[in-house]
Predict the 3D structure of the following.
Amino acid sequence: MNLINEEITHKVFGEGNIVDQDASFVTISFNEDIKKFVYPDAFGSFITLNDRDTAKSLKKILSQREMEEEALEKRRAEEKERQVLEQQRREKLKNLKIHESSQIVFWLDEEEQQNVFTDWQVYTGTVQSGKNKGQPNRVTRVSPNSAGLLTARESDQAETERRIIGLYMVNETFSGNFHDDGMVPAHAEFRIKLNDQEAEKMLFWNYYINKSYPHRTSWNSGKYRYFDNVWTAQILKDIIALKTDEKEIKETTNFLEYFCQMNALDMDNIPEAKGALKQ
């Protein structure tokens, strides 16, 4: 707002005239005595515009700025609180000896896609080199707090079209450190199968992100990857929103509650997904 040549009244210096202005200061002449004031902070506290219409317009600007500053301060306070809660969560995970990425995501071939929802277990594949070559992969991070995420894409599809077709909590007696047969069995209760229409809306790369290369969407080899605990909660939350059957909504909600309990997550404060496809 251009205030040059506007007449003002200062609480201490009296009548004056604005002779210069920039984004941060106004310069006012008080009978040849030149003084600078912070703009627009000085208005409303020390300086009053003599022209009522101009004063009214400036008041609107000041009110808007005050609202923006309050909103910014609120966001800062919320972010600070979020950081405190996140630190507390990390400490809790550390005390419980839970890894931040203790979930597992599988790349299923065609045969596995047909069998997994009958067998409700997935094979981790075999070691490709070294002294343990040919032996089943041991998924050491996976334990009863882990979920197994089931994904697939057709051979003629781009990697960005990888779909989430289901997931399950790992069997409550499973520990990747001690199971050497390569099978990751499901919990008896917490299992979800998505139909084709639902799976088309649940793209894996909406959730997964390589933090060093946030735009990269590549999975060239390997049977499985470890997956962030929070990302899995995001997926469950989105599946709940996707479901229309009341029974399935309740079952998925129970799954999410159990998952959050097992991974020290606040079910009511799950952040929005920011995977590679959302960058």
Q: What stands out?
A: The chain has a mean pLDDT of 91. The CA atoms of residues 18 and 28 lie 4 Å apart. The first strand starts at residue 7 and ends at 10. The chain has two domains: 7-69, 99-278.
